[in-house]
Amino acid sequence: MNPAPSSNRRGLVRSFGPLLAMVGLVAGVGCDTFDSQLSELTHPLAPPWKPGNVHRPAASLPASLRRVAVLPLAATEGQELQSGREMLTESPGQVLTRSGLFEVVTISERQLHQWTGRRSLAADETLPRNLLVKVREETGCDGVLFARLTRFQSYPPTVVGWNLQLVAVPGAEIIWGVDEVADARNPGVVSGMQQLFRQRGVTELEARQLAASPRRLAEYSLETLFKTLPPR
Questions:
Q1: CA of 137: how far to CAs of 64, 126, 134, 203, 222, in Å?
Q2: DSSP assignments along the chain, one per residue
Q3: 182 in a domain, yes or no?
Q4: What is the number of domains present in the chain?
Q5: CB-based contacts of 209: which residues, under 8 Å, 6+ apart?
Q6: CA-closest candidate to residue 105, choices 97, 117, 114
Q7: How far apart are alpha carbons 214 and 108 in whole angstroms?
Q8: Distance CA 226, CA 169 (A)
Q9: Predicted confidence (pLDDT) per residue in 5-40, tens digit
Q10: Would you say residue 99 lies in a domain?
Q11: How many CB atoms are located within 10 Å of the residue 222 CB?
C-alpha cells in the first residue's frame, strides 16, 4: 500500500489536533477533580459530630465503679430494628471494653433469660424485681449498662440510634445516659468517621466508603458516645 501523500498527512494532523487537545483537557479536569476529592478526604470540611443529648449528673465516675455488666442489646419490634439488634448485639460491650474505663462483663441472652425469663431489657421498661441484685451476685459488677437500639437503617444513608444508660449497683443511681442518632447524612458524622478510621490505617478508598457500612457507623457512634462518660 502506498503511503498517503504528505499533504494528506498534514490534513489528518490538522483534523485530529482539536480532538487530541480536547482529550487532554478532559483528562486534566478528571485529575483535578480526583485530587480535589482526596484533599477533601484528607482535610474534612465539617467538624466531627458531637452528641448533645447526654445526661451526666455526676462530675466524675464513682471510685468504686470498676466492673460493668453489659446487658444484651434491646430493640423494639420491627424487622429493621431486629435485624440491627442481631448484627450489632456485641458492639456495646466490645466498644466499652476498648475504652479502658472499666472491666467489662458481657451478659448473654441465655444468661439473662435464666435469671429473669427475658432475653433483653431496656432501662425504660418495667424491670424484674431485684434485677440489679441478681446481676451483681452473678458477676460481681459495680454497675450495669442498659443498651437499646432505637433506629437502624442498613442501606445508605445508614442510620444507627442508641439509648444507653449506666446504672450504679447497688443503689440504682443513674451515672450517665445518652439518647442519640448517628445519621450518615450528617456531614459531621461522615467527617468524624473518616478521621477515626483513618487514624487506624484505612485507605482513602475505604474512608470514602465508611458511611455505607452500618457496622462502622455503629462502632464510630458508640466510641463517640462513650467519650461523653464522666471522667475518673
A1: 16, 21, 5, 46, 28
A2: -PPPPHHHHHHHHHHHHHHHHHHHHHHHHHHHHHHHHHHHHHS-SSPPP----EE--SSS--TT--EEEEPPPEE-SSHHHHHHHHHHTTHHHHHHHHHTSSEEEEPPHHHHHHHHS-S---TTSPPPTTHHHHHHHHH--SEEEEEEEEEEE-SSSPEEEEEEEEEETTT--EEEEEEEEEETTSHHHHHHHHHHHHHTT--HHHHHHGGG-HHHHHHHHHHHHHTTSPP-
A3: yes
A4: 1
A5: none
A6: 97
A7: 22
A8: 19
A9: 444 444 434 443 443 343 343 344 444 444 444 444
A10: yes
A11: 25
Q: The whole model's pTM is what? A: 0.80
What CATH number does the domain containing 70 carry? 3.40.50.10610
User: What cell was used for 109?
Assistant: 441472652
Domain of 94 in residue numbering reads as 54-226
Distance, in Å, from the CA atom of 67 to the CA atom of 69, rounded to the nearest integer, reads 7
Residue carrying the nine cell digits 498517503: 4
Q: Which residues contact residue 85 at a Cβ distance below 8 angstroms, ignoring those fewer than 6 apart?
A: 73, 74, 75, 120, 149, 152
Given a contact cutoff of 8 angstroms between Cβ atoms, the answer to whether 104 and 68 are in contact is yes
Q: How many CB atoms lie within 10 A of CB 197?
A: 18
Q: Within a domain: residue 218? A: yes
d(CA 151, CA 128): 25
- Cβ atoms of residues 58 and 175 within 8 Å: yes
Residue-wise pLDDT for 168-202, tens only, equals: 998 899 999 999 999 999 999 999 999 999 999 99
Q: DSSP assignment of 68-111, as one string?
A: EEEPPPEE-SSHHHHHHHHHHTTHHHHHHHHHTSSEEEEPPHHH
43 lies in some domain: no
